[in-house]
Each structure stands twice: as C-alpha cells, then as structure tokens.
C-alpha cells in the first residue's frame, strides 16, 4: 500500500471479492460536506489528489478521476496519468462516463451514505442502457483496504453563545417548527453539519477548518429536536445549553430511528441528504417530502450580532494580513522564502491575536505557475521558492468565534511585466464592478456575474470559477444557497435571489497556465440602497465591502481605470488606513500609508 498504484490494484482485488465490477468514490462524507474529516478522505488516499472536489471511478481495466476547471492543472500534478484518465466536469458527468465504459451486465458499487438519491437515479439510468446495475454496498470497499484509516475526531461539541449567534437555539427551532406546520410536515431531517451547528448554537472540532461536530438532527413540528451524536462528545455544559427540548441519542441509532416514521410526512433535502437517509425513511413507511433544508436560507441572512461580529473579525484579520503583506514585500524579494514558509508566517500573524480558532481553509500560498491553479494546495513535495520575476498569490482566511474570513491578495516579487499589470487591472475592474453594483431585490447572483468578467472578455480572456460564494458566521467558508456565478462554472447552477444580510465573496481572477495567477478577493455584505429619484416602491440592493487590506498598487495600470474606478480604489484604501492603521505598529503603519496613497 506504499504507492497509489498499489492501492488501486488492492481496490480492484477487493471489488472482485465483493462481486463488483466497479466502484464510485466521491470526495465527501455522509453529510455531503465540502471539507471532510481525515477518516473520509478516501479519494485522496486512493489517488493522491488533494483538491476539495472530485470523484473517482474504478473499473477492472479503466480508472477515471473527475474534476472541474478549478483543478485541471492540480489533478495532473498529483495523480498518475499512467493509472488514471482525467475527465472534466460538468462537460462529462460520472453517470455518462459509466454508461459509455462499463461492460454489459456489470455490477457497479456505490456507498449510499456518500451519494444523493438524484445521483443514484441518474447513474442507474445510464447503466440500464448497458444492461448494467448500480449496487449499494453495506461496507465501503476502500475502507476494507485502508489499513491505517483515521478514526473520526473525538473532539467535544462546544457552545456558540447567544451574544455572538444573535438568536437563541429555541427561537431558531421554533421558526423551523412553524415552517414545518406551513408545509404540513411532521419533521425535517438535518444532515448538513453547519445547519445543525447553526440551529443548535453549537460548534465542534471534527472537520479541519470548519467548526462543526459530526451529528444528525431531526426537528419536529413543535420545535423539539432529536440530536444524534457520539455520547462522549457531549459534556454537561453542552447538555445544559441544549435543554430539555433537545433529546440526545447515540449517532449509531440514527438510521434505525428513520424507520420509525411510518405514516408521517418527513422533509429531506434532495440535494443535501444522502440516498441512505431517503431509503431508510421510505423503508419505514414515511412519506418523504423533497424540500430544501430550511436552515440554509435562514443562516445565510446574517442578523445584526453576526454582522457586527464579522466586522470585528475582518478588522482583526485585516491587520494580520497587512503585517504579512509588509513582511512579504520586504522579505520575499531575497528569494529565501517558500510557499510553505510564507503560509506559516501568515498563520503566525493571525495567531498573534490570541483569538484565532483555526484557518477557514488550507491556505493557498502559490508562486509563479502554481498561482494558475485556483485551488492549489502546497505540500512538502510541491513547495516552491518565492523568487523575483514572479507573482505571489495568497488566498487565506481565519475562523474566529465572531466571524469567518476569506481574502486573496497578489503581490509582484520584483517589477511586474506589462502583461501582468494589464491582467491584474482588468481583474480589479471586475472586482470594482461587483463592489459597486446596484440591483433590484430578487436579483440572482448569476445575473451580475458578467459584471466581473466584462473587462477580461474585452481582451479575449476569462476565468473558470465562480465570482462569489456565500460565507458563514463562524461556520463554513463556502456557504449556500447564494452565489455569484456563471451557470457554466462550478456552483453556477444554484439560482438564489440575493437578500439583504447575505455575506458573499467578490473574487474575480485570471490564470495563465504555467506562468501566474491573479485573484482579488474581499467579502461583501448585501444591503439596501436608497436611490434618489428611483421608484419608491422598488427595493434596491448593493454591496458593502467588509474586508480591508491593501491592494497592490505596483500591479495597477491607472490608465485602464475610469475616474469612477479610481475614486472607488482610493476611497477603499482610505478606509483601509482608517480601520487597519490603528491596529498595526509604526513600521507597518508607515508602509501601509505609503501603499494606500491615492492612485492616479
């Protein structure tokens, strides 16, 4: 098992023992999480791929790994092309590929705790055309050959206090109960870890970068809730916080409990619930109502306490990032630092506040060609020196009790080329277009995504990811249902009106394969906008930028900016000095003032 080739061969042997002709391995867990605990990192263990989204299919003679445009370069660096075919999604789906590659009569296995019912139906239909079948497994064959598979985290569940949550768990559960009454439903099954954490005002340490605890919940129409969690994760403090209206059960009892709803109407999110949940409910005689998790929209609209917390976290985080940018500007041109040492230095600056709980994702510390990989993950093997003549991209964030941050900056190591300045300025123009957008209430993120792309499109350029994602309140760094995205790119199919109180990222980019990457990311808050002379009956919305750190002036070509764009940039930098200046020391403050001086 020392090589990924050995692991692939071992899996094929295991599939033969289980009388299977293939198996599908998604990068997720039984909660369909984006980031998963070490115990669920089956795709990485099998293939070597370190990205945060992907799926593999193993057949007797073929093996394929499916990734979207964010990982086109990364997957080829980390996974052997001798053993695996590289397939792009959404251009080709896993189901379609299976339908084209399996033999007639084949039995293709899947873990029903790792796929949605919709995926099962789609794959089954594709296989039926080849007289092949999709077979649920009781035991995942990857687990059977993974000798040192980590155990799930033993971390305790913790209380997320009402003063930062902004509402009590009882009030939130009562609102979900009212929603169930409106839907004429008896209960809703919650399997998304961040939904459970938000609803119960609890947090955890079971998943790197996301403060959640492994659990399931069933909320009833009267607001009473059954929580399924390992008993040793609950202490007296949490038990008292949850109160008598939350009944505690061992996590292992969840599936059997789902079979106890005979004759009742139970909501299960078709996109957020694994097939095993739906199968168990139906097997027990429940009527399954396919409705979106009602917590999703509720937690996406931040209340005043959550917004205030995010402002405080953003200022604290911006000061740490500013210290880092000063350090990088003065240290990295010597060529003595690497991607790993830079990431460690930024973590050191964040930890200095004494309030950092975790990073909000693995820091993307990327120099030169690595910057052209949007979700690059630096490892000991890939670590590169930060040297003059290259762009250095740093995308990072922090988890604080009062907020979650996510920010990207790019700085040139030595003088940038004219092309670098042109591309950076076009990305900046797109960033400003989103930051200054005004739109009617009810507008969806996909409708304004093109604002960010137009300056690049005008030069025959584009980028292969969404422009903005939602973000949680000391929760997931990527939070739905809101997005700013082209339907052609990952996540773009999610159509959700933008509402006041939502937090999103604003992060257009440009990537030149083999040379450099550019992305400028701030977080923004959707807020009402009064438009003088506008229709008084029409509610208009806009964005307030909440992230503050200097945008590198050496990469800006002022000639490409309009007067309005220059005004925005200079006003933004003036606010950076106002908010961050008092939080940094003399040498850094002097550098900050110089970097934030008016442009143009």
TrEMBL record:
Residues 310-527 form the Peptidase M24 domain. Signal peptide: none annotated. Gene3D superfamilies: Creatinase/methionine aminopeptidase superfamily, Creatinase/prolidase N-terminal domain. Residues 540-599 form the Peptidase M24 C-terminal domain. Residues 7-138 form the Creatinase N-terminal domain. One of its GO terms (molecular function) is aminopeptidase activity. It comes from the Bacteria. InterPro entries: Creatin/AminoP/Spt16_N, Creatinase/aminopeptidase-like, Creatinase_N, Pept_M24, Pept_M24B, Peptidase_M24_C, X-Pro_aminopeptidase_P. It holds the Pfam family Creatinase_N. Keywords: Aminopeptidase, Hydrolase, Metal-binding, Protease. Belongs to the peptidase M24B family. This is Aminopeptidase P family protein.
């Amino acid at each position: 098992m020392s090589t990924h080739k050995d692991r692939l061969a071992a899996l094929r042997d295991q599939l033969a023992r289980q009388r299977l002709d293939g198996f599908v391995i998604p990068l997720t867990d039984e909660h369909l999480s984006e980031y998963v605990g070490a115990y669920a990192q089956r795709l990485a263990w099998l293939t070597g791929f370190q990205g945060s989204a992907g799926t593999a299919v193993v057949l007797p003679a073929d093996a394929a790994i499916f990734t979207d445009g964010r990982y086109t370069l990364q997957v080829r660096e980390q996974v052997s092309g001798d053993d695996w075919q590289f397939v792009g999604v959404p251009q080709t789906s896993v189901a379609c590929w299976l339908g084209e590659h399996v033999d007639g009569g084949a039995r293709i296995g899947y873990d029903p705790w790792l796929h949605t019912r919709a995926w099962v139906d789609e794959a089954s239909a594709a296989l039926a055309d080849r007289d092949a079948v999709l077979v649920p497994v009781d035991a995942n064959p990857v687990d059977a050959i993974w000798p040192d598979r980590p155990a799930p985290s033993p971390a305790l569940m913790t209380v997320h206090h009402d003063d930062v949550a902004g509402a009590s768990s009882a009030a939130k559960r009562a609102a979900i109960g009212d929603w169930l009454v409106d839907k004429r439903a008896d209960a809703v099954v919650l399997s998304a870890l961040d939904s459970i954490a938000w609803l119960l005002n609890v947090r955890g340490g079971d998943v790197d970068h996301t403060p959640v605890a492994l659990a399931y919940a069933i909320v009833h129409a009267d607001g009473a809730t059954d929580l399924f969690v390992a008993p040793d994760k609950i202490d007296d403090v949490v038990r008292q916080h949850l109160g008598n209206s939350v009944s505690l059960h061992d996590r292992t009892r969840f599936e059997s409990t789902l079979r106890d709803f005979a004759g009742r109407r139970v909501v299960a999110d078709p996109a957020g619930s694994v097939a095993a949940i739906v199968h168990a409910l139906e097997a027990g005689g429940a009527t399954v109502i396919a409705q979106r998790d009602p917590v999703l929209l509720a937690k996406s609209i931040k209340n005043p306490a959550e917004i205030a917390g995010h402002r405080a976290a953003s200022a604290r985080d911006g000061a740490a990032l500013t210290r880092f940018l000063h350090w990088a500007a003065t240290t990295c041109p010597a060529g003595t630092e690497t991607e790993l040492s830079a990431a460690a230095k930024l973590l050191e600056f964040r930890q200095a506040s004494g309030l950092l709980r975790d990073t909000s994702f693995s820091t993307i510390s990327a120099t030169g060609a690595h910057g052209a990989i949007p979700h690059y993950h630096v490892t000991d093997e890939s670590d590169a020196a930060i040297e003059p003549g290259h762009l250095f991209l740093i995308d990072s964030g922090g988890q604080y009790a009062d907020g979650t941050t996510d920010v990207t900056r790019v700085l040139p190591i030595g003088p940038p080329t004219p092309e670098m300045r042109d591309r950076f300025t076009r990305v900046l123009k797109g960033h400003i277009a989103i930051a200054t957008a005004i739109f009617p209430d009810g507008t969806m993120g996909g409708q304004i995504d093109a604002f960010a792309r137009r300056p690049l499109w005008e030069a025959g350029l584009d980028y292969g990811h969404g422009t903005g994602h939602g973000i949680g309140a000391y929760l997931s760094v990527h939070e739905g249902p809101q997005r700013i995205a082209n339907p052609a790119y990952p996540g773009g199919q999610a159509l959700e009106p933008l509402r006041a109180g939502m937090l999103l990222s604003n992060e257009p980019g440009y990537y030149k394969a083999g040379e450099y990457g550019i992305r400028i990311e701030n977080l923004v808050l959707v807020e009402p906008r009064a438009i003088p002379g506008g229709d008084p009956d029409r509610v208009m919305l806009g964005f307030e930028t909440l992230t503050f750190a200097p945008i590198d002036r050496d990469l800006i070509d002022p000639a490409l900016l309009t007067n309005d764009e220059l005004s925005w940039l200079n006003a933004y930098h003036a606010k950076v000095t106002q908010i961050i200046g008092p939080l940094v020391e003399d040498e850094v403050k002097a550098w900050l003032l110089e970097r934030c001086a008016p442009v143009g």
